[in-house]
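Internal tracking record. Fields below are filled automatically when a chain is submitted to the structure queue. Please do not edit lines marked as system-generated. If the sequence contains nonstandard residues, flag them in the REMARKS field before resubmitting.
Queue: standard
Priority: normal
Entity type: single polypeptide chain
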Amino acid sequence: MPCSARPRPSLEKAERARWLEADACDLPFHDRKFDAVVCQFGTMFVPDKALAAREAYRVLKRDGVFLFNVWDALKHNKLGELAHRTITSYFKKDPPTFYQVPFSYHNRTEIRRVLKQAGFREIKTEVIAKIGKATRAKDVARGLVEGDPVAVAIAKRDPSLLRNYQRDGRCNFASLWKTKHSRTDAGNCGPGLRLRISNPVH
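SYSTEM-GENERATED OUTPUT FOLLOWS
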């Protein structure tokens, strides 16, 4: 899930990098080993975020930096919110809750508390808003299900609902874009992803 590596100036030097799978809560490295630990996508999925923060702190050299991003609250990410609402509308009980996970770790106070308790200082956070682009609402509706584990959760409950979602999701996304841009194509697809970037120093 996490990646920690040094920037490489050219593709020719790629063989110098060492790639391996590792548990963010149990990094297989010695103490004070790295100048930086970077997690571009994954911190919000770590089951024990406090332990992962302590592990990042442990393997960093003094004055090393832990750089990661997480997604802002679901209410600030309208496409994800609409996908979640459309999906859960099909289930009277036990709806898939995947979309609650990646948008769950966004509270600045909580993030700072976790990092401070891990030992970090000079903790900086920044909110960055990005707009996603797609050519058709159909593509986004499909991607927001088939591109993540929620498709498996739906299929386990009722595979036929995947087709219903493709239809209803497409209509709902097109309606959102029409409201925002007075058109139904996805050229600039309305509210995009808001990231919370954290940059604590060892």
